[in-house]
Amino acid sequence: MPEDQSTPSDAHRTNQSNQDNNIFIPRRLRNFMYILSIGTPTCASFLTTSRPTDIANWSRPFPYLCILAGIVFALLSVLSGVGLLGFINAIQPNTVREIQPNHLKFALTVTLLIMPFLCLFTSGLASITRYLGAVWFGNSTWARTGVTIGFAWFILMIFVILGSIY
Question: Can you tell me the distance from the alpha carbon of 54 to that of 52, in angstroms, rounded to the nearest whole number?
């Protein structure tokens, strides 16, 4: 019979890690549900009220498509974060050695690592784009100019940040 290579301390650490995950995952999902419970009535009241000014025109479908895209990408961010959490909990030292020679597995792992941030970034960009679209469909030239300059500044900041990181 082969000997068991694990020690009691390894089993204790694994058990402690599982207990930590059993506490952490429900907390994270509960926080998400709190945010969703705040966002749903806000969105409902926003959709049922009339527009107070001509600066932004919310009667077009484009801003609402951006709202829908923002919600979908926020949900994808949470789901990919939960998947990433499961992957990180299941990773072993041998897993890294197995991934390195296989380029497809390496690319998929890197994609899984950046997916929560990428989806959350896309959700924020959709949120900004909905306001930009609503103002562009409005009747105020000054508001159009201001929003366009602000959005151009935002894109420039993203390029500067990414350029300084890499």
Answer: 7
DSSP string spanning 90-110? H--HHHHHHHTT-HHHHHHHH
In the chain the first and final C-alpha atoms are separated, in Å, by: 53
Amino acid identity for residue 65 in this structure:
L
Residue that the structure tokens 């994609």 belong to:
111
Whole-angstrom distance, CA of residue 90 vs CA of residue 84 = 10
Q: Which of 14, 106, 119, 36 is nearest to 73 (CA)?
A: 119
Q: What is the pLDDT of residues 95-147, one digit of tens each?
A: 777 877 888 888 888 888 899 999 998 998 898 888 888 888 888 888 889 88
Contact 58, 134 (CB under 8 A): yes
Give the list of residues 6+ apart from residue 4 with CB closer than 8 angstroms, or none.
none
pTM: predicted TM-score of the whole model, two decimal places = 0.61
**One-letter identity of residue 131:** Y
